[in-house]
Write the structure tokens for this entry.
Amino acid sequence: MTDNRLPITFILLTVVIDAMGIGLIMPVMPDLIQEVKGANLGTAALWGGFLATIFAVMQFIFGPIVGSLSDRYGRRPVLLVALVVMAFDYLLMAVAGTIGLLIIGRIIGGITAATQSTAAAYMADVSAPEKKAANFGLIGAAFGIGFILGPLMGGLLAGFGTRAPFYAAAALAMGNAIFGYFVLPETVTDAIRRPFEWKRANPLGAFMHIGKLPQLKPLMTITFFYEVAFYVYPGVWAYYGAARFGWDPQMIGLSLALFGFSIAIVQGALIRPALRWLGERNTVLLGLSVDVVAFVALGFLHNGWVALALTPLTAIGSIAGPALQGIMARTADDNQQGELQGTLSSIRAVATIIAPLVVTQTFFYFTSDAAPFYSPGAPFLLSSLLVIGCIALFLWRTQNIAAKTDI
């Protein structure tokens, strides 16, 4: 077998850069939109939610399309072209002087960031059967690293101006494209190449499978509302930090990186002991309960240092997601696992589209003159209500599932 270390390194760097594109813009977004629009912080939050939704919509639509194109034309051209376009997109964002150009930039950025399916396909192509699972784990780790580095880099470089993070990201994307040009061989041969078909690239296709999983509909509903609630962190944290604590972009970036790092520690080190000691059902309940407490606390906090100190604790709530997914995987039949994972991916994608609008609209209203009281933390209080609803539904509808699966 050929040495795949350099191609795999390129793939992991591509995933890191894709993930960084999500977090990079967060710390500078409040200042950038106010600079471009001449708007107040609440209005900036509205536009920020709109831009985040556009990015998510493009990823949702173009994820399967880009993956299908790579099956037809090869992984190498799709990945390299996406990186070059991504680099020019960051340059566009760096010089954008109107909200229209920022919208165009987020549209292009969402399309180019939809290459994660292609990166995963390449990893499958070059991995021996016994190493596929471990190498897919590397992709997950790379995404986590990118999500930590994105806001950290965005916050630190913001000291050189709101456009500096975009110039740096453009350099990273172009540098990785050049690296890939020299080290990335094509893995799609005529033996496995297939024609491009629109029906295979339908992003809504996975939803057709929900009807085939009726026993899981309540848990899928919980997953949707939980994803909407949890998006409050990336969705309004930058605006919330600026309004409630007076944080600058550097502090916002550092706080987001701390949260991402805490999530990684919890997911990597605490989830297994929690499942072993508590079981899946109680782990879900613990995680959701911690989320409620964290959201309520952030809804009323006025001290930024206390918010930072609570970050590791609030991250514990993230144990609920994997445990809930484990219950669903155990409830579904063996021949339904692919349907289940595809459907869950689509549910999360739709939640990521809707959530930015919900949380930023809430922030805008409760920081405006029309609000009955001023509350930058209102989105977190809304998220606490959504999670309380998730707990109630989970307790009500999982009794039979718990008996069946012995959770």
Summary: The radius of gyration is 21 Å. The mean pLDDT is 84. Residues 258 and 311 are 7 Å apart (CA to CA).
